[in-house]
Design brief:
Helices cover 60% and strands 2% of the residues. The protein has 8 helices and 2 strands, in the order ααααββαααα.
């Protein structure tokens, strides 16, 4: 079953608030933009030109936020048939091995996410095939823009800081793309956090197990409770 997360440290509370606030804001913005676009399209034969692109960007952000959030509450689905077939000690060892693999994979993703995003912000990607060994002289791609999304604020600062003073007509791509390294960093943080919980004995798994069985059992219990008294009348 998924678990309720209670952050214990200041950093944990900050990350927790960032995740939950970000997810709530993204869902709200997606709903508002989509609703306004539908009203404009069917009521006034018009539309927000940048609405679809913004919704796509926000949906990608939501997925990346959701990956780390699911690790936090142990909501990722997984196959635990092998874990269920062994005793507690081998199960713990196998869980720790899988956690180490997830941490290593997260570090590789972090390098790839930075290397993809950095040139769009005028920064250098890292050298090295698997692990960063330095910084390469990457081709500056900070002038790349989105298709339709306007720049709501800080336009002059963005142009002076990232585009050598050249004008941006639309929002530069590094702004929506920044969610890639940020989201992967959140995921890596959560994987390390869950791994520490397993090492300390306060957690048992990286994945949610037997979720469907618990759901079926819950429905069965509700059905048994109502079948004995189908009219819903209280007994004296």
């Amino acid at each position: 079953m998924s678990v309720k997360h209670h952050p214990r440290t200041a950093l944990g509370r900050i990350v927790h608030n960032i995740e939950e606030t970000g997810i709530a804001l993204i869902l709200g913005c997606m709903t508002v933009v989509t609703f306004i676009n539908v009203v404009l399209r069917y009521g006034f034969n018009s539309q927000i030109l940048w609405g679809l692109e913004v919704t796509l960007v926000l949906f990608a952000w939501l997925i990346l936020f959701g990956v780390s959030y699911a690790f936090k509450i142990t909501a990722h689905l997984g196959v635990d048939a092998l874990l269920a077939a062994v005793s507690s000690r081998p199960r713990r060892v196998m869980t720790l091995v899988s956690a180490a693999v997830c941490v290593a994979y997260g570090m590789l993703m972090m390098k790839g996410a930075w290397d993809y995003w950095a040139p769009f912000a005028g920064l250098d990607a890292t050298e090295g095939r698997w692990f960063p060994t330095g910084f390469a002289n990457s081709r500056d791609q900070a002038w790349y823009e989105t298709e339709q999304i306007p720049i709501p604020f800080l336009k002059g600062w963005l142009e002076a800081t990232f585009n050598a003073g050249e004008e941006y007509e639309k929002m530069p791509r590094f702004i929506p793309y920044v969610m890639l390294p940020f989201g992967v960093a959140l995921m890596l943080y959560r994987v390390c956090e869950v791994s520490l919980r397993i090492i300390r004995g306060s957690g048992e798994s990286l994945i949610v197990a037997h979720e469907a069985e618990h759901a079926v059992d819950g429905v069965g219990e509700e059905t048994d409770g109502t079948s004995a008294n189908p009219a819903g009348r209280k007994e004296a």
